[in-house]
Structures are given as structure tokens and as C-alpha cells.
Amino acid sequence: MGEIGMMPLAPLGSGEEMDRLAASEPSVLVTFTGPKCIICKRLAPMLETVVREAGDALASAKVDAEALPDVSERFEIRSLPTTLLFRNGALADRLTGFATAGALRSWLKKNGVGTAA
To answer: What is the pTM of this model?
Structure first.
């Protein structure tokens, strides 16, 4: 796993970084957040828990949607938080809004990504 993606929800600084991460790992979770987004702050610990449980099966990162509007537009991010799942370099699914750790585990499992819990 590359440097970005090893730390749960490492911030991405560009679309190019996001493309490299998505192409370099079999499963990548990217969440789009914003500094004023209260729901994003509530979702972050749920995402961190699930990413840690998944271990090497799932790389992860976050994108500040306000700081990178071109990336947000490219992936048609209309509300925050929005979490994207990439499988083998391609966008596989998206989840908008808050989700519990259990709901995130189910979503990942549905998409073929295993977690330990």
C-alpha cells in the first residue's frame, strides 16, 4: 500500500493523487468532506473503525470537497459526506450521508470488501 492510503482517511491534495491511489490498490474508499460539515465529523470515526478492521484489504483517503472543487465536480459530488468505493481502479459504488459502522461494513461486504468485524 502506498504512503497515502496506509493511514486511515489520509487527506488527498489533488485529483492526480486520487487517481494514483485508486489505480494502485484493489479496494479504495475515498470520502468527500468539508470543514463545516457536521455530519462528516460524525461519520469520520465510523469510517476510521471500518478501515482499520479491513486492514490491508482496503486503502482509504479523504478529499476536502471545497478545496478540490474540480475533483468533486468530476465525481458529481452533490452533498457531503459522500463516500466512493473504487475496485480495481474503477468506481464501484457510492454512499451519501451518514452511516453507522455496521452499515458501512454491510456496504463494503456487498461490494466484495471484507472487514474483520
So the answer is: 0.91
The CATH number linked to 92 is 3.40.30.10
* 106 occurs within a structural domain: yes
For residue 20, give its domain range: 3-110
Kindly report the CA angle at 26 between 47 and 78, in degrees rounded to 5?
A: 50
**Positions marked catalytic:** 37, 40
Q: What is the pLDDT of residues 15-72, one digit of tens each?
A: 999 999 999 889 999 999 999 999 999 999 999 999 999 998 999 999 999 999 999 9
Largest CA distance in the chain: 35
How many structural domains is the chain composed of? 1
Interhelix angle 101-110/38-54, nearest 10 degrees: 60
